[in-house]
Amino acid sequence: MNTVGPYHNRQETYSYFSLPFCVGPKEKISHYHETLDAIAKTPYCEIELNEVRLKTFVYAVKNHYWYQMYIDDLPIWGIVGEIDEANDVYYIWTHKKFDLGYNGNQIVDVNLTSEARLKLELGAKIKFTYEIHWFSIFNSFMMVIFLVGLVSMILMRTLRKDYARYSKDEEMDDMERDLGDEYGWKQVHGDVFRPPSHPMLFSALVGSGYQMLTVTFLVILLAIVGELYTERGSMVSIAIFIYAATSPVNGYFGGSLYARMGGKVWIRQMMLSALLLPTLVCGTAFFINFIAIYYHASRAIAFTIMLAVICICTFVILPLTLVGTVLGRNLAGQPNYPCRINAVPRPIPEKKWFMEPLVIIPLGGILPFGSIFIEMYFIFTSFWAYKIYYVYGFMLLVFLILLVVVMCVTIVCAYFLLNAEDYRWQWTSFLAAASTSGYVYVYATYYFFFKTKMYGFFQTTFYFGYMALFSATLGIMCGTIGYVGTSKFVRKIYSTVKID
């Protein structure tokens, strides 16, 4: 145990046992090691509230006292009690539930939940209890790797059969081939590299996704090396700086993709690519900020900061994106497809309902969301509760696993689509991967109603507005990596098969 003090004044701290908590059966508290297991609810001491103890606890609860403790040098925070203001009644939390995450023999994450509310009144006997739950991060990693391996193995075996069938078809003469039943992804070779609908928007999303992937990797790496989380606001400041500095990445990949698709109005595409995410973020943030100003909330952003962000978009992001676009169009803007594109689009045949893009897209996000489900809880707790997120090495590992899972799942989705002779794989692969963010937003909705105590128009708008930004950004990143992986896969299979 470490300290206790009023929540609204973090600088005022006292020894944890300055409150009349019972110290358990040990006369002297020292550093104590115990074998960690799934420990059931265990009482460790009991006190009776006399007048002094009652007044002390009531004062602590009235002033929103919180406490801090450490497990394996990992900090945990908890609250002493809560107030029923309607009835002027004070309660104390008597049960501590610890969730410990470990990798091998090392604890890497700790979470505390306070339960069992008891009314503070003279003469009450308070029994303090605790329990410990644990989960192995290593096991979840192995499960994800197993699923990815299984999907890859099934896909490779299916492709071998396709290659064998197509090789047999090549040995037939024209009459045999005409009489045969040709089907599968080879039949759409003249349309598979046809530009998708709305190429300007598509290339802008992919360019923004490349940039956000770069920003995410750099911010996580800097957090691991430099401990950015120890200073308030440092994470947001460095993220804005890196986003502005990496604008050429957006221009290069978005501009080159648009050029390969035959796009002509590249200035408009560059503007859309540069301002897509900043407009989304600033528009949402400014709208929420006006509500915050109306409610006189401390979350309100100063007008000068809003003006500074607009200046960054105008004088930094736009010029750097222009530089990247020019480089991308000149260095990687020439189409180099392994198959010719037919002048007339091939009609898409009817197929079973589960092969339709509208069915494939929502199914594509289930497995990627499952791979990050556990980590979402701790990230949300860091966002909306009063905890510091400190396991950035683990976050990097989860993020890499997410990208691998997204890539494998979207490749499988695209294969099924092409095998049904539907060549609309670009948007399908992007949206199937991006649908992961839809499940994240649904989980965020659950978290709001069951894990937070937010209420009112401002708090609801604040939460769902920023969670929509978080989910949209995650969706753009996942969609980009899904499209890029699928594009490599499609090029590979069509460059290997002989096309007449």
From TrEMBL:
<feature type="transmembrane region" description="Helical">
    <location>
        <begin position="301"/>
        <end position="327"/>
    </location>
</feature>
<feature type="transmembrane region" description="Helical">
    <location>
        <begin position="201"/>
        <end position="224"/>
    </location>
</feature>
<feature type="transmembrane region" description="Helical">
    <location>
        <begin position="392"/>
        <end position="418"/>
    </location>
</feature>
<comment type="similarity">
    <text>Belongs to the nonaspanin (TM9SF) (TC 9.A.2) family.</text>
</comment>
<dbReference type="InterPro" id="IPR004240">
    <property type="entry name" value="EMP70"/>
</dbReference>
<feature type="transmembrane region" description="Helical">
    <location>
        <begin position="462"/>
        <end position="484"/>
    </location>
</feature>
<feature type="transmembrane region" description="Helical">
    <location>
        <begin position="236"/>
        <end position="259"/>
    </location>
</feature>
<feature type="transmembrane region" description="Helical">
    <location>
        <begin position="134"/>
        <end position="156"/>
    </location>
</feature>
<keyword id="KW-0472">Membrane</keyword>
<feature type="transmembrane region" description="Helical">
    <location>
        <begin position="271"/>
        <end position="295"/>
    </location>
</feature>
<dbReference type="Pfam" id="PF02990">
    <property type="entry name" value="EMP70"/>
</dbReference>
<protein>
    <recommendedName>
        <fullName>Transmembrane 9 superfamily member</fullName>
    </recommendedName>
</protein>
<keyword id="KW-1133">Transmembrane helix</keyword>
<feature type="transmembrane region" description="Helical">
    <location>
        <begin position="358"/>
        <end position="380"/>
    </location>
</feature>
<keyword id="KW-0812">Transmembrane</keyword>
<dbReference type="GO" id="GO:0016020">
    <property type="term" value="C:membrane"/>
</dbReference>
<feature type="transmembrane region" description="Helical">
    <location>
        <begin position="430"/>
        <end position="450"/>
    </location>
</feature>
<keyword id="KW-0732">Signal</keyword>
<dbReference type="GO" id="GO:0072657">
    <property type="term" value="P:protein localization to membrane"/>
</dbReference>
